[in-house]
């Protein structure tokens, strides 16, 4: 495992922990898109079904279990424990416009037409756009809490680092995965405007605001 994948994994884990701590400490999920979190739970569930069929390493298995567990814990906090604080009025992105096309694309463009491979491909495509409900929610409310922007920053950083990881693997291992790379590029592009605002505003102590 190279340093870019490791730091990417740690950035991903940091994003998840930041979000969970934010919800738990404030006893509120205000400003958090429950729809994005449901999509991420679906991403991890469909991607890590290989937990039932193969073992790669203790690190690999542990991270997969942590991601799945944290994803469903987040969904539980939003829709059950702190449901009264969930802002459903602004979390209105039509997720079927993401899930249905992504599902169709996974059937058409994949490495192998088998159930596990199609589901893995579906998860890769879906992850690239799963943050859209959250970004849409921020655009509707016009602003985001600082802790929420930290979560989004580390989530975007994770994907950017994974892109570098794919480049590293291509040059030093001869490994090339077009599906993962294209999806990673799409996901990173979605974060570009946010990265700019994060650096120019949040890191300077200002509140992140977007045009509604």
From TrEMBL:
Q: Which UniProt keywords apply?
A: Cytoplasmic vesicle, Endoplasmic reticulum, ER-Golgi transport, Membrane, Protein transport, Receptor, Transmembrane, Transmembrane helix, Transport
Q: Where are the transmembrane segments?
A: 65-82, 119-139, 151-172, 178-199
Q: Pfam families of this UniProt entry?
A: ER_lumen_recept
Q: Does the keyword Transmembrane apply?
A: yes
Q: What are its GO cellular component terms?
A: COPI-coated vesicle membrane; endoplasmic reticulum membrane; Golgi membrane
Subcellular localization is given as: Cytoplasmic vesicle, COPI-coated vesicle membrane; Endoplasmic reticulum membrane; Golgi apparatus membrane
Could you tell me the superkingdom of the organism this chain comes from?
Answer: Eukaryota
Q: How does it sit in the membrane?
A: Multi-pass membrane protein
Note whether Transmembrane occurs among the keywords. Answer: yes
Q: What processes in GO biological process is this protein linked to?
A: protein retention in ER lumen; protein transport; vesicle-mediated transport
Q: Which InterPro entries match?
A: ER_ret_rcpt
Q: Which GO terms describe its molecular function?
A: ER retention sequence binding
The UniProt family comment states: Belongs to the ERD2 family.
Q: What is this protein called?
A: ER lumen protein-retaining receptor
Q: What is the lineage of its organism?
A: Eukaryota, Metazoa, Chordata, Craniata, Vertebrata
């Amino acid at each position: 495992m190279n340093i870019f994948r490791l730091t990417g994994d740690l950035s991903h884990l940091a994003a998840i922990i930041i979000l969970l701590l934010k919800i738990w400490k404030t006893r509120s999920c205000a400003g958090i898109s429950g729809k994005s979190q449901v999509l991420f739970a679906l991403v991890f569930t469909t991607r890590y079904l290989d937990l039932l069929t193969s073992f790669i390493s203790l690190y690999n298995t542990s991270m997969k279990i942590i991601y799945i567990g944290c994803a469903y814990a987040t969904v539980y906090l939003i829709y059950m424990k702190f449901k009264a604080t969930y802002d459903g009025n602004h979390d209105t992105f039509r997720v079927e416009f993401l899930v249905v096309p992504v599902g169709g694309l996974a059937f058409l463009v994949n490495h192998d037409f088998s159930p596990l491979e199609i589901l893995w491909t579906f998860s890769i495509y879906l992850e690239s756009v799963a943050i859209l409900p959250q970004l849409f929610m921020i655009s509707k409310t016009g602003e985001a809490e600082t802790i929420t922007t930290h979560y989004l920053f580390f989530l975007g950083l994770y994907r950017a680092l994974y892109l570098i990881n794919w480049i590293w693997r291509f040059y030093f291992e001869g490994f090339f995965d077009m599906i993962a790379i294209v999806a990673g590029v799409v996901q990173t592009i979605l974060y570009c405007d946010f990265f700019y605002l994060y650096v120019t505003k949040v890191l300077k102590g200002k509140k992140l605001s977007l045009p509604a």
